[in-house]
Amino acid sequence: IIITILAISIIIALTKKKKKIIEENDELDDVLNLIKKEGGRITQKNIRKSLGLSEAKASLIITELEHKEIIKRIKKGRGNIIILQK
């Protein structure tokens, strides 16, 4: 019985992790599509407003896209301008 419960728990945990990865990829695609739609240049604030993201979530997504060298973040005043690299 204990082994069965452990196995079910592991399966549930892996399923949740897989769903989270899929959701994160969807959010990356949403941000990229928005940047493309805006002509390859948009402010981080407009990304947040358009997609309904929190400041933290938007920053994490943009940082990941930066690490992948897909976008470039330019500091301007108190905000950021996001420019598509590719």
Description:
By secondary structure, this protein is an alpha+beta fold. It is built from three helices and three strands, in the order H-E-H-H-E-E. The chain has helices at residues 2-37, 44-51, 55-67; strands spanning 41-43, 71-76, 79-84. The protein has a three-stranded antiparallel β-sheet with strand order 1-3-2. Strand 2 and strand 3 form a beta hairpin. Helix 2 (44-51) crosses helix 3 (55-67). The protein is elongated and about 60 Å long. It starts with a helix and ends with a strand.
What layout of secondary structure does this protein have?
Layout: H1 2-37, E1 41-43, H2 44-51, H3 55-67, E2 71-76, E3 79-84
Antiparallel strand pairs: 1-3, 2-3
Helix pairs in contact: 2-3
What is the count of β-strands?
A: 3
How large is the count of helical segments?
A: 3
Could you list the spans in which at least 5 consecutive residues all have pLDDT below 50?
A: none
Strand order of the largest sheet: 1-3-2
Whole-Å distance between the termini? 54 Å
The whole-number mean of residue pLDDT values reads 88
Structural class: alpha+beta
Rounded Rg:
17 Å
Report the helical percentage. Answer: 55-70%
Task: Please tell me what the overall shape is.
Answer: elongated
Strand proportion, as a percent range, falls in: 15-25%
Secondary-structure element order, as H and E?
Answer: HEHHEE
Largest sheet: number of strands, sense, barrel closure: 3 strands, antiparallel
